[in-house]
From TrEMBL:
PANTHER family for this protein: DIAMINE N-ACETYLTRANSFERASE, GH14572P-RELATED
Keyword entries, A-Z: Acyltransferase, Transferase
Molecular function GO terms recorded: N-acetyltransferase activity
The protein, known as: Acetyltransferase (GNAT) family protein
Sequence similarity: Belongs to the acetyltransferase family.
Xref: Gene3D superfamilies: 3.40.630.30
Domain named N-acetyltransferase: residues: 15-170
């Protein structure tokens, strides 16, 4: 059974995990902003609803998105995309797994992660990878508890958009 061919829903503790639709994007952005505050970067979010919608639901979607929804509202998201490893082949990269603060500890993050891992399996990905901040102990413990390998040997490198020309024209 392929997830793409079916409406994907898990029901667990009054939450359902499903693929996002365009109407979910405003709440998704709220959760992204909540994560930015949690990660001590409250002013770092520059994306808006329009761009998130275009990038996720346009002609060539740049990402996939699952939501965790209770009877009242969306309480979590898992945003992912595919990348390619020269050593391993196709990789599903989990960009963010977010559960709103008031709903943490209810098993919703695990259900979202299960959906991501099932998607990686269905898409024949050899790896599923993500990052966690070194001070985020609750998340680190969660990932250790499920048996994820935490690789401390890599350093993240980033070049921001306003730096591109300065670098490639030098």
């Amino acid at each position: 059974m392929r997830l793409i061919d079916f409406a994907f829903i898990f029901i667990f503790m009054n939450v359902k995990i499903r693929r996002a639709t365009e109407k979910d994007i405003p709440r998704t952005l709220e959760l992204i902003q909540e994560l930015a505050v949690y990660e001590r970067e409250p002013n770092a979010v520059v994306i808006d609803v329009e761009e998130l919608t275009k990038d996720g639901f346009g002609e060539n979607p740049a990402y996939g998105l699952f939501v965790a929804e209770t009877e009242k509202e969306i309480v979590g998201i898992a945003l992912y995309y595919f990348r390619y490893s020269t050593w391993n082949g196709k990789v599903l990269y989990l960009e963010d797994l977010i559960v709103t603060e008031s709903e943490r500890g209810n098993g919703y993050g695990r259900k979202l992660l299960n959906a991501i891992l099932q998607e990686a399996d269905e898409q024949s990905c050899r790896l599923c990878t993500w990052q966690v901040l070194d001070w985020n102990e609750p998340s680190i413990e969660f990932y250790k508890a499920i048996g994820a390998d935490l690789d401390e040997g890599w350093i993240n490198c980033t070049v921001k958009q306003d730096q591109y020309k300065e670098i490639y024209q030098s």
